């Protein structure tokens, strides 16, 4: 409830973009439709639209990620906004300034939007519940909680390949569900879009305790899990975050859960292969699969710009219109 | 005298902005008036003016400061200039290039303005006395010497709250005067604007040896120092710079010099509370004071953008007009 | 042959700019002429041209260099492109992503041009031979192999000072030839422009094994090497790269190969003094020489912006026109 109030303005528009949970089907479809209108722009010779000209967007990264920061910076620049990159691990924290004081200061400089990445779950919500009325917050990943722009670019990619009827699709998410903020957001989005069959496939040690409440069918065997799948989304094995005890070895993981052309024979012939990147080749999947004709992994990256342009412009414009 | 020549062009306009000392009252008022014209701009939806379009401004930071760098970068972008951030601690110094060679190289790339921050007092003056005629220098803090844009945004804030007649004001500066480049610049600015009563309040260990020549009345007791004050400016306790011997403990400092609502009862009822940030809550002041209705600490941050836009555009335009 | 195909499009235009080797005289002169048209722009008050507006250029630096990155960033901004700086040492490499996956991802974001710097010889060619058709690559220095924009700005500087007839010039390159990617590119460019006499002057320990095939006359004595020279190009002594065994001491190097006013008396009276920077004063040359009236070291820096603008716009426009 609180969540819903935070993200959605009084007129039903997008005020912040923090998590898929708390949004509704209509709003998700509006995001996808808006992204569709930007997808063409980024392919043109002159890729800029003047929608956010004169606006100030701050990439507030408490956790370093060149890749994610780059996609948001590009999206902001193609909307003609001014972008400032602030890496909090290097700066204010050193002087002992509190997060709220940092926020208040940036707001006072008339920043219009914060793109927030943080290692703690709930950080983006905390910030959104404390910003001034003139400021919007976009969650670029918080702890194990949520990564909603990644989920929306995945939905956009599925819709482009498979069409708008998610009801007839079987989608399998394979890999380290437990540590994945991406998986949580994907499952929420797939359910809001009324996907016919949402499955998660993982060894027991990589499933969260409450996985049955996530809204997906659970499989511990890869071939069973991806049988007749229309879409397979692999997750990145977060090697740096995992405790040694959870996995016997990367090699054994690959044997059991790594996707190969051979294992793919049980899926639909036109199965679509997705991965949020960066890929650990030979761990989550074979290079033959990653680079094969059914892979849309690079299309996901392209769509990420359009989806981020959509979310940023919707949140900015909602705010603008609200006071009138 | 040298100072005056460096900062002021032959027509009396601002050529560099290095320290308050060496400027005159008329110029200070011109800066405040120009900042007033920009203060409205930064509150608009489209915050950019094309004044410095096509100009190149380099933030040349020999001492890291995300906060200060951010304010100058935003001010430059809102004037439509191109901004380059160069952190000298990481780069040229490593290759053994001298400061003058670094300067000559950047000048040769037709940089129009340097915003300089350096741990050594006098660094900005040194650079200004060596740059090419087509280049201006703005001091963003040099050692314990000067931080003139901070002082001017404080003056701007006082004028906005208390009106243009500084003659009827009692202003008390409280805290670590000895290590504070901010305090030096504030005292000079307050005196140039003919402030009625300028006071500094600090323990003896945090006062410079020559404090009587600064042009302020010295107090060692907080309640005496802020009695009937119209404005109280607290300074940040530079914990990282202070030797252990100067202060018994932060707690004892707070007991004696930390500003609380209770201690404030001796000041004027409408006393204005200021701090350059970031605040050490519970050290320089209570949170109740920092976030209270008489605090203008966040307004200071907002005004910092307008004042920096004013100083940058004045220095740039003076240079342009000079040769004609 | 492969090299030629990579750099030059089917219509003979510049597709990538990777090395001087593989280009032809006409193309070098076209680069110099285009740079001439930009040289005036960078001296104007408003230095921007809208040629690359809406284009995205990524500075992909696998080897840190603030100086080189700055010149490319300035050149791109003065062409009105959007610039992203990505330091690969800090980012993707940490997550174990391969170079090709990093490239594919950036291409998928519709990046138009990569400016690449890498410690390995051949890295820029490798990247150029793997990028998508819509992407151009500019080599900003790869290992000991090539640094073609530096060579072209040197040619531009020589042409500006000595006129377009390189046939009547004697040019001596002095210093650490063995470790210098700059020297290789300079010798190629000087030969393509039909320079009358190209000389390299170095101790035997700082010459590559195959130096006779470079296309230059080899001298081991400074006075002999620079006798009657029209142009002397000193190289930076890459202290950080050199093994202790190659040089007895910097002092001894200076005694034998350091250029002084006294030694210069054997060169032409109007000899032009060049150095790619940053200078080690008192090692490669005396300060009297570096700052003297015959030195054009800072002009080289200025011309570097114009030459980079030329190469970037030519590669971008060739690509654009090619499909028509």
Describe this structure in words.
By secondary structure, the first copy, chain A, is of the alpha/beta class. Chain A has two domains: 2-146 and 302-319, Aspartate/ornithine carbamoyltransferase (Rossmann fold, 3-Layer(aba) Sandwich); 148-300, Rossmann fold (3-Layer(aba) Sandwich). The first copy, chain A, is 36% helix and 14% strand. Chain A has eleven helices and nine strands. The first copy, chain A, has a five-stranded parallel sheet. A four-stranded parallel sheet of chain A has the order 2-1-3-4. In chain A, helix 3 packs across helix 11 (297-321). Chain A is globular, with a radius of gyration of 20 Å. The two termini of chain A are 25 Å apart. Chains in contact: A-B, A-C, B-C. The interface between A and C is medium-sized, with 30 and 25 residues.
């Amino acid at each position: 409830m609180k969540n819903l109030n935070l993200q959605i303005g009084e007129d039903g528009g997008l005020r912040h973009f923090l998590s898929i949970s708390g949004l509704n089907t209509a709003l998700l479809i509006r995001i996808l439709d808006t992204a569709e209108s930007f997808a063409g722009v980024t392919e043109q010779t002159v890729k800029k639209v003047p929608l956010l000209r004169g606006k100030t967007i701050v990439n507030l990264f408490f956790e370093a990620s060149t890749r994610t920061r780059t996609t948001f910076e590009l999206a902001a620049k193609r909307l003609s906004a001014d972008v400032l990159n602030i890496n909090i691990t290097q700066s204010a924290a050193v002087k002992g300034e509190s997060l709220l004081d940092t926020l208040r200061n940036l707001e006072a400089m008339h920043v219009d939007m914060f793109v927030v990445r943080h290692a703690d779950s709930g950080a983006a919500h905390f910030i959104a519940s404390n910003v001034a009325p003139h400021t919007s917050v976009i969650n670029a990943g918080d702890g194990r909680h949520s990564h909603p722009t990644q989920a929306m670019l995945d939905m956009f990619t599925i819709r482009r390949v498979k069409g708008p009827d998610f009801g007839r699709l079987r989608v399998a998410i394979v890999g380290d569900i437990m540590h994945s903020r991406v998986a949580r957001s994907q499952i929420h989005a797939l359910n809001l879009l009324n996907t016919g069959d949402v499955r998660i496939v993982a060894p027991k040690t990589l499933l969260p305790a409450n996985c049955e409440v996530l809204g997906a069918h659970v499989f511990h065997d890869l071939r069973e899990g991806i049988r007749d799948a229309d879409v397979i989304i692999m997750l990145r094995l977060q090697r740096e975050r995992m405790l040694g005890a959870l996995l016997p070895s990367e090699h054994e993981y690959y044997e059991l859960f790594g996707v190969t052309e051979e294992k793919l024979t049980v899926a639909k012939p036109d199965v679509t292969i997705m991965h949020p990147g960066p890929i650990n080749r030979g761990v989550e999947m074979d290079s033959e699969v990653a680079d094969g004709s059914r892979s849309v992994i690079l299309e996901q990256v392209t769509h990420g710009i359009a989806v981020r342009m959509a979310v940023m412009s919707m949140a900015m414009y909602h705010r603008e219109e609200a006071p009138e």
